[in-house]
Amino acid sequence: MIDFAKVRAIDIHTHAEEPCGCHSDDGYDDLQTTMAKYFGAPWSHPPTIEQTAAHYRQQNIAAVIFPVDAERETGYRRYSNDEVLELVKQNDDVLIPFASIDPWKGKMAVREARRLIEEHGVKGFKFHPTMQGFYPNDRMAYPFYEVLAEHGAVGLFHTGQTGVGSGMRGGNGMRLKFSNPMYLDDVAVDFPDMNIIAAHPSFPWQEEALAVAHANTILKKKMLFGSDWPMISPEKWLDAFDKADFRDEVRPLILKENAMRLLGVA
């Protein structure tokens, strides 16, 4: 189990890009290569969950980790939530499992979400509207959200631009419009008991999203640390954070305390 008193931060946003045993030659390697070039990632092949755990252990940072279920829209094989959970259990001194289910799966998504929460203690789910091809306020996803709201689970939504498909013909079919953060407004109104994370600064809709400029005041208990590993390393993010103009009393909130409260481990 994670000793939250000892870790220096909680990274709320890391990807399980290459769980052991899941690799298949379906074109995903090409996507990863272009993404790595876009972000300047320092690896030739995505790290496994074991490698991710080792890196975060060395950095003394806890990490929320998840796959992205987007096989319907992208054609890339889904990484199994159960496989990710098993590997996370082997590294539960540093990793916290979230899951991902394509909301287009309807009743199957609802059943799987309920099972993962009730039987495995999953605390949240990753949604990538651009990769999964849906508007967050599409009513087809509402039964899924109801399960999250019922159990106090987190919905972590990608917002804004994405490096996914960068440099590929037609952006590899990725449509930016789905990730406008304004579509989360309906979700927040209709599911007031659902914990929602809007990942990233939401460019080019940062004006519609909550402004980072208020992190020292009204948002100081809402901001979270999320690196988007493995495309961006936590140490690169923390180096930039150290140079940013945040008050001393706000820094521990963003780095760890807000996430602890959200995850129910405070």
UniProtKB/TrEMBL annotation:
Key word rRNA-binding present: no
Q: Which keywords accompany this UniProt record?
A: Hydrolase, Lyase
Domain Amidohydrolase-related span(s) in chain numbering? 10-214, 216-264
UniProt feature coiled coil, ranges: none
InterPro entries per record? ACMSD, Amidohydro-rel, Metal_Hydrolase
What's one GO MF term for it?
hydrolase activity
Source species, domain of life: Bacteria
Pfam families (alphabetical): Amidohydro_2
- Identify this protein by name: Amidohydrolase
- Species source reads Paracoccus denitrificans
